[in-house]
Design brief:
The protein contains six helices and no strands. The protein starts with 13 loop residues before the first helix and ends in an 8-residue tail after the last helix. The model has no long low-confidence stretch (mean pLDDT 77).
Length: 136
């Protein structure tokens, strides 16, 4: 039996194996279907599932790279479900933020405000979910 969801590979026929009444016929059905079991996604080492996950990851990466640095950000609320005052409107605003602004934002999220301005910008971007690729 071919399965369109599994690239046309034959799947084992469990119904026939279950319906078999004699031991001899059951052994024959099992032998005929045993080799087909490797075509099952859960039994092929997860190769098909892994390939699908990798494809999804590539799509998500492509989407995140398509967002410009001036795209509007949605404010992330604090762990106490509070707004952080003067949340940056865009990634560009974070890139232009001075030391005091960065400290205020980081402290609003209860993150340590240590390191250089560049390090603190990276820390804030990572915390609010901005994926950074390449160099800054």
């Amino acid at each position: 039996m071919a399965d369109a969801d599994n690239g046309g590979c034959e799947q084992p026929d469990f119904e026939t194996m279950e319906e078999t009444n004699s031991v001899g016929r059951a052994t024959l059905e099992l032998a005929m279907n045993l080799g087909k079991m490797r075509n099952m996604p859960a039994l092929d080492g997860g190769a098909q599932i892994l390939a699908e996950l990798r494809a999804m990851q590539r799509e998500m990466t492509d989407i995140s790279l398509a967002i410009s640095t001036n795209a509007q950000l949605i404010a992330l609320r604090t762990p106490r479900n509070e707004d952080v005052e003067n949340f940056p409107m865009a990634q560009d605003d974070i890139d232009r933020a001075n030391s005091q602004e960065l400290n205020r934002l980081l402290e609003g999220y209860r993150l340590p405000a240590q390191g250089t301005v560049v390090v603190r910008r990276q820390k804030l971007k990572k915390y609010i979910g901005i994926v950074m690729t390449g160099s800054i």
